[in-house]
Amino acid sequence: MRPVSVWQWSPWGLLLCLLCSSCLGSPSPSTGPEKKAGSQGLRFRLAGFPRKPYEGRVEIQRAGEWGTICDDDFTLQAAHVLCRELGFTEATGWTHSAKYGPGTGRIWLDNLSCSGTEQSVTECASRGWGNSDCTHDEDAGVICKDQRLPGFSDSNVIEVEHHLQVEEVRIRPAVGWGRRPLPVTEGLVEVRLPDGWSQVCDKGWSAHNSHVVCGMLGFPSEKRVNAAFYRLLAQRQQHSFGLHGVACVGTEAHLSLCSLEFYRANDTARCPGGAPAVVSCVPGPLYAASSGQKKQQQSKPQGEARVRLKGGAHPGEGRVEVLKASTWGTVCDRKWDLHAASVVCRELGFGSAQAALSGARMGQDVSKRYECANFGEQGITVGCWDLYRHDIDCQWIDITDVKPGNYILQVVINPNFEVAESDFTNNAMKCNCKYDGHRIWVHNCHIGDAFSEEANRRFERYPGQTSNQII
Ligand SMILES: *[C@@H]1O[C@H](CO)[C@@H](O)[C@H](O)[C@H]1NC(C)=O
Ligand SMILES: *[C@@H]1O[C@H](CO)[C@@H](O)[C@H](O)[C@H]1NC(C)=O
After folding, report:
1. Residue 4 has what pLDDT?
2. Mind giving me the DSSP string for 66-118?
3. Strand 278-282 versus strand 168-172 pairing type
4. Where does it live in the cell (predicted)?
């Protein structure tokens, strides 16, 4: 634990912080000790592609018929309820616009509205079962926390479709294995299929394909390779081809989204007259920085940034902000998808996007409602949540450069007794503060006498506490 910072703050700032401690906490809906099979005769499953076992399009079976949920009015609260129906502890996110592909059959629920604490989705409000004006292009999905509810005894099917699919892609250097500086930017394209790694037949291979492969490996662009050199090399090596006919448009975020064909087990002559596909990628500034070319990169004149990421835990992650008329603003998540996210990622020097997050998962950029007065030393930069109820002297705490961790938030008011007060018991506040890279929990706030041993002991009493619930 170490203090973040100490500053002067008006009593209103104190009020703000206490308000925040109850509004920034994570929802931790109570979960029943044991889940009975089939809530209200309903069954739930996750479907779609590509996905992990704990995410997908939500499908509900009712009266023997499987159907989906429309994304209209969908919220994280609804996702919490659905994830618990599926046997997971909670949701970490949700998706819209059929991110996992459109479903079929009924659209069982529309305008679903849950508070997050419901034991069953039947307790949530909606337009009524089967009443929807949506199409399956609006199917909602959930991303559950990869943690099962203890004692969950539901027979809900969690089906991961075992399609033949490209699970992973890598570039294997054709020469000098292991003697090159990381990252590998040029070499044979290899794909991992259920039975292992194999090469891709280069017949019909295009620059669009290379663009997609480089993008998904984190490189913003690709360059031409010495085809003659690789052809010669290929003649002297054995290959096992697993894939052919790859035809990407170039905007795909993953090779598995391109049109392609797998070889069948009984295809004896694979890739006749062809060779393994080879790509050469151009690393972006992040990789260049990690391989000792940082100075070179920094000395390049940099154009004025027009896009930036804020509020993410790692480089290459965050809320997208764009500069327009010298003001940074955010982007609405409507129609926000991997394609759009990839454009931003490449503009920032990364490859294609791994995920397009919506529903303000990187925090909402709440717009200022009031102009704030700033009296010299009180100035704290803008960047934190700033929802003010009154037009008063107010400050912000910019936490965008603070690393995730546990901190003590301390606010000092009128420390030198320059302003008369009836008593000084309220002139300091100290809180425990946990930052996970996305959200801040301010808890255990203590007003007055915050410098005393006694107060410190009281703060250290709940070191494992991670929510803002005062025990
Ligand atoms: C359902 O949600 C959509 C999108 O938010 C909204 O336009 C529509 O008015 C809602 N319909 C009802 C009946 O609440
Ligand atoms: C190859 O196997 C597939 C099924 O895996 C079968 O449908 C096809 O007829 C077989 N082709 C030949 C030429 O044996």
Report:
1. 33
2. EEEEB-TT--HHHHHHHHHHTTBS-EEEEE-TTTT----SEEEESS-B--S--
3. unpaired
4. Nucleus; Secreted, Extracellular space
Vertex 66: Cα angle to 30 and 148 (nearest 5): 30
Q: What is the DSSP letter of 258?
A: S
Instruction: Say if residue 446 is in the same domain as residue 373.
Output: no
Task: Specify the CATH number for the domain of residue 253.
Answer: 3.10.250.10
**HSE-CB of 157 using CA atoms within 13 angstroms:** 9
Of the candidates 421, 460, 443, which has an alpha carbon nearest to the alpha carbon of residue 17? 443
Within a domain: residue 268? Answer: yes
Number of domains in the chain: 4
Query: Residue 463: inside a domain, yes or no?
Result: no
Q: Which two tokens stand for residue 123?
A: 């307790």
**Gap from CA of 264 to ligand 2 centroid (Å):** 8
Residue 244 has pLDDT above 80, yes or no: yes
Residue 50, preceding peptide bond in cis (omega within 30° of 0): yes
Residue numbers of the domain that contains 49: 41-142
Ligand 2 binding pocket includes 269 (Cβ within 6 Å): no
For residue 445 the two structure tokens come to: 């706030």
**Full DSSP string of 274-294:** --B-EEEEE--HHHHHHTT-H
pLDDT digits (tens, 9 = 90+) for 82-128: 999 998 999 999 998 888 888 888 999 999 999 999 999 999 999 99
Q: Is the CB of 73 under 6 A from ligand 1?
A: yes
| Separation between Cα atoms, residue 449 and residue 112, nearest integer Å | 48
